[in-house]
Structure of Diaminopimelate decarboxylase:
Amino acid sequence: MAVETHTAADAADAAARRDLAVRAAVEQGLVGGAPDAEPLVCLLDVAGIRASAAELTAAFAAALPPGTPVLHAFAVKAAPLVPVLRLLAEAGLGCEVASPGELALARAAGVAPERMVLDSPAKTSRELREALALGIAVNADNRQELERIDALAGAGPPASPIGIRVNPQTGAGTIDALSTATATSKFGVPLRDGGARAWLVRACAERPWITRLHTHSGSQGVPLALIAEGVRELHALAEEINAAAGRRQIDTLDIGGGLPVNFASDERTPGYARYVAELRAAAPALFDGSYGLVTEFGRSLLAKHGLVLARVEYTKSTGGRPIALTHAGVQLATRTVYAPAAWPLRILPYDAGGAPKPGAPAVPVVAQDIAGPACFAGDLLATARELPQLSPGDLIGVPDTGAYFFTAHYGYNSLPRPAVYGFRVGPRGEVRFGLARPAQSLAEIVAEAGGAHATAFL
Ligand SMILES: *Cc1c(COP(=O)(O)O)cnc(C)c1O
């Protein structure tokens, strides 16, 4: 598609930056092939994150009349790291938060309350009270939550923009666990259930301070056309509510995130311009400037810019299958390990010095398992993957892991959260690293496991 011709060149640039960063990470001692070196580190490509944020902003700006209010709120759960939120804030993005922890991270990054949206499906009264006191926009998930907001608001209208989350019930994608718009999804008010639409119109008529509607109908595995259909339903509902109210009560549509990511190559497809084109085709009026827009992208902003670098500790052959035992496993690729068909990851081989490892004829290419360090048989990042035969001290790179992978640590076997560095490549190829999150120390692991309470059960 014409809007995506830039992606091949971008992909080559990103791959070149990545190879420079891998070599520099070894040279600067962040990770290494030697037995006493660090076995594992995670990297984020700062230029790549900036480019994705700029691409998102430009794609919507190009489609909307000048002056239309737009807030691109990054879904914090995709990469809950304060330096990431700060970088995105500098690029003009806000934050979508869904827990007290995520809200605290956004505040620590200096994100202003009016640049945040609170979305969780199980907000406590205390969370709601705090969000309203700060003026953070809240999307109510259900009737009971709306009644809590009524009670908290008391006599006057709430100080925060209030929306209602709607489930358009447009159907599932290829990954059930990530499909938010099924007939029975746990999220939002089900639009097609009997009486629900009439209730929504009435609920808004009774509460003139409800000014937003929200849907988040996409995710990995959901086709763009299906996501766009959900947004079209949202727009139609807003028109119906406004017609019933006789005024433009709903002034903002929060269309969620959910743009899928290409895990098969370095190309960033589908791009935001393609998604905007898809939305325009489904709901042209969405872009006529009569509604402000909020978006909540997560995976599509960060996934392509993250890399895990892990040492191959040992290699063996079992039942004729070569196996590389590495330090990258379930603790940082939880979804891939438990649902490998839905979450395939590429594996990039590097030698101990951080140079891309050549294939045949220099090194034979064989089908091998890439195993992690955890003590259960299924801890595999790849099965029978054709790669140059790995040796102890080699490194594997696991790209596309910037969202929902190493930032969503799983504490199995008390494996520590690895360090995360951002990297920037200078004009002469020099690489500078900035620490985003230190590795979890053994003392921290012990403390978080009740180290100060050893005698509590005696
Ligand atoms: C997870 C989530 C997002 C982000 O989804 P991505 O697929 O990462 O873009 C946005 N909004 C809500 C409400 C979410 O739960």
The chain has twelve helices and 18 strands.
